[in-house]
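If you are new to this repository, start here. Below is one unmodified record pulled from the training split, so you can see the exact layout before writing a loader.
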Amino acid sequence: MSRRKAPAQAAAPRCTVTVCRGCCCGTARIPGVDHAAQLAALKAQLGPVAQVRAVNCLDACEQANVIVVQPSPAGRAAGGRPVWLGLVNDPDATADIVTWVRAGGPGVADPPVILDLYEFGPSRRVRRSVED
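And here is the target side for that same chain:
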């Protein structure tokens, strides 16, 4: 009998949720927000279905707190593109992002309508640095 382990199953391709936690986002400059709880909630609730990563700065400080939802390969194949969300400073907005990503994210599921209020377009330079 062989002691070799079965090959690990490859994880299904997932959305990537990038959370800014740099000079403005995730700091006391945005008062009244439990930044650590926001990031912890995203990681706990999306961990099984998306990659959640915190980065130092997305260079869109005027929109702090910024979250970028990048589509899965299936979402990108269906026409989904990264969605930049700014001023994500309340738990309801975070919950709406979780609901959308759990449903498949960009290209797979339509976002809750309320997220239209949070969406913004960063400069091409900033967008390229995150989306590539």
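Two things worth knowing about this chain: The chain has four helices and four strands. The radius of gyration is 16 Å.
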